[in-house]
Amino acid sequence: MTPTRLLPLLAATLALAAPAPGARGQDRPLALKGATIETVGEAGRIETGVIVLRDGKIERVGPIDEVEIPEDARVEDASGMTIMPGVVEPAYPFQVPGESSSSGTRTIIIGGRVITLGGSSPTRSPIFTRVADSFDPFRADFDALLRSGLTHLDLVPPDYGQTAVVRITPDDPDGMLVERDGRLYVSVSNSTASLDVVRKGLEATKPDAPGGGRGRPDGPTGRGRSGGDGASGRPGGPPSPGSSSADSSRDLWKAVAEGKAPLLADAGNAAAILYLLDAIEDFEDVEVALIASGSDVYRTLDRLSGRGGVTLLLRPTIDTMPDNRDRINLPRIAHEAGLDLAFSQGGNRFGLLSAQDTPLFDVGYLIATGLPREVALEALTARPADLIGQGDALGRLEEGKAASLLVFDGDPFDPYSRLRTVIIAGRTVYETD
């Protein structure tokens, strides 16, 4: 049986083998045999391997001559295919229902004309938002992203707040929200208002701060459903000192200051990167997952590489050097400078959807021009999973982790290879002939 002819049967078998959402009990395992397996774990690349899935998890994985396939397993020949972990997106913009990405308007005067622009004034204090309070799985529009190989998204708020992790399971909306209490996220520019969020948030964690390190950072206000987790009950107004929104922001800043969780920071320009590094300079334990353009990172590379604890979230693309049109492989340059990196494509939904015939072509081009293959694989899977606090379950094909994986009919980075099947928690959520 050829791999291409196997695919519809494989998808049907997976759907039958996996338990229904919320179901309990032990189903027959499924063994995919003969595929090349990119584990992105300690086992590395397995040229001819077996992976066994049961009840939404990986039960066994390894070389074909070392893995004992359970007697009750359905066995499918996956020869010629490549299996890799699902792509994890660490910073996917979330639109709060009923609001623009930056609430409010601002007025400017050009040549004597008064023009009103959408978006808030750069001097406005960012609003603290818990994504989970506004997330409605029945209104989520993520299905199309499956064709790009994305299986999990870390949803980030418009300006400032707490992220939430979802998996793209359109047939199981109740199971989409994986983690309500995600990472702390802030969008920074070279405006005082946005930088003060970082400065005051960290300062409030110091032992000598008002309240003995338990003071509430100035600036954030609560937003969410009245009575919901993290909601103040007064959307748009400041939370009371005892509100869950104030507690959320305080606890999140404390975790960042102590190095227990990274700060997701979206820097609008090169100056913002430098100001952000200045703001965290006195807090040696702070780790930052920095979202920035390739050209802005290139401008500030010396400063970034001189501070530990920075992970770059970069688009997987060839950039141009600042002030000229010379093309550069910024992920390779950053890696060679000793910086950790993960790929983030969430801010370019159009690009994701327009390249679905070859979803990993851009990453393949980066590899062809010098980025190590294993670094690229980690940047798509394991590294972002670790950053968003899901490394124990996602990002690697290892025993006990979630059975969330992609099946290609060849090398995932070959432009002639196609994504054939997407599996999340052991269930087929996308497949094509």
From TrEMBL:
UniProt keyword Signal present: yes
Domain Amidohydrolase: 366-430
GO MF annotations, alphabetized: hydrolase activity, acting on carbon-nitrogen (but not peptide) bonds
Gly residues compositional bias, start-end: 221-235
Superkingdom in the source lineage: Bacteria
Keyword Signal: yes
Keywords: Signal
Region of interest called Disordered, as start-end residue ranges on this chain: 202-251
Protein name, per record: Imidazolonepropionase
Species name: Tautonia plasticadhaerens
Lineage: Bacteria, Pseudomonadati, Planctomycetota, Planctomycetia, Isosphaerales
